[in-house]
Amino acid sequence: MKKKKFKKVLVVLGGTSGERPVSLETGKACFKALKKKGYKVSIFDPKKKNLNLIDKKNTDVIFNALHGRNGEDGVAQTYFEYLKIPYTHSGVLSSFNAMNKLNSKEIFKKNNIKTPKFFSIKKSDFKKNIIFKNILSKKIKFPVVAKPINEGSSLGVVICNNKKKLFKLIKNLLKKYNELMLEEYIAGQEVQVAVINGKPLGAIELIPKRLFYDYKAKYTKKAMTKHVMPARLSKKKYNEVLRIAKKTHLSLDCRGVTRSDFKFYKNKFYLLEINTQPGMTSLSLVPEIASYKGISFENLVEKILLDASINK
Ligand SMILES: Nc1ncnc2c1ncn2[C@@H]1O[C@H](COP(=O)(O)OP(=O)(O)O)[C@@H](O)[C@H]1O
Ligand SMILES: [Mg+2]
Question: Is the CB of 19 under 6 A from ligand 1?
């Protein structure tokens, strides 16, 4: 057998974000896969113990299975850098920019990557007329999508058909979130692309039975969303979306695996966001795309692990 680059792996999972349940599932699945591959694996939940208490001597590498705030936004990554332990997925700055939808959309725009029109509102400057003035000046038509600027799993994402509903929903969301993004609604197909180690792996299409690909559509079998792999696109368009996802991954200087979420409408792709810690649960899309390409779940997890590093 080949000598392993790392022996002792610490899977960091759970955490304190709204996506804790998803992270626990991702972490458990990756833990199992790494055990199967012959690594000495243990787990660490930052909800129970602070990240600076990680036992450095017994950790060759960290497999970051966190999702959401403090795990996907550069905070956990800063601890890993400080501890000088190589870790999987993107680094501090890439994670920060990808998690903050305002930052990432500015980066998409700079790189000529098409993204829906948007503007942001802060709790402190919440005023009905400002919101509607912005909607008009940006030429955004209803329906409008409102979402937190740094959440995941569709948490807090709402689609509004009229001014009255929008105002009410925004008011409610601002009780929980300090800043929101308002975005034009893009109809059409929902397409997501996995990129691993800088190379696009494939594009999957989601057909939600619900109004959109919300939390329930993502994580419950009952509300089942139809997964179509490969996405129903012409060869030309399929390759185009792979190219955009690769460009996005590279524009944000991401590492390991990412998943970029698109809408495909009137022959154009609109990038909604890039995820630097995509889900690895049994219903997750990156493992499904990998499996279509003949990469088993265990091999996928090991591929991600072997790309772990720190800033030199
Ligand atoms: N501008 C939009 N137009 C149409 N649907 C959207 C838009 N923004 C979000 N959605 C729907 O909400 C889902 C979650 O939005 P996304 O921006 O990817 O946030 P999250 O980080 O929560 O996944 C998308 O997969 C899509 O179904
Ligand atoms: Mg998404």
Answer: no
Tell me whether residue 309 is in a domain: no
Atom index in ligand 1 nearest the CA of residue 186 equals 3
Overall pTM > 0.70 = yes
* pLDDT (tens digit per residue) in 154-210: 888 999 998 888 888 888 899 999 999 999 999 999 999 999 999 999 999 999 988
Is residue 134 domain-shared with residue 57, that is, in the same domain? no
Q: Are residues 276 and 198 in the same domain?
A: yes
Q: Which atom of ligand 1 is nearest to the CA of 217?
A: 27
Domain housing 167: 118-184
- Cα–Cα dist 29/12, whole Å: 12
Site to substitute for ligand 1 among 104, 144, 154, most atoms within 8 A of C-beta:
154
Q: With beta carbons less than 8 A apart as the criterion, state whether 240 and 30 touch.
A: no
Residue 273 annotated in active site: yes
Ligand sitting nearest the alpha carbon of 214: 1
Q: Is 157 in the pocket of ligand 1 (CB under 6 A)?
A: yes
Q: Alpha helices of 161-283 — where are they, by DSSP H?
A: 163-176, 215-219, 235-251
Nearest Cα neighbor of 157 from 210, 229, 225 is 210
Distance, in Å, from the CA atom of 137 to the CA atom of 119, rounded to the nearest integer, reads: 10
Peptide bond into 143 cis (omega under 30): yes
- Cα of 34 to ligand 1 centre, how many Å? 31
Task: Give the count of domains, the chain.
Answer: 3
**C-alpha span between 117 and 123 (Å, rounded):** 20
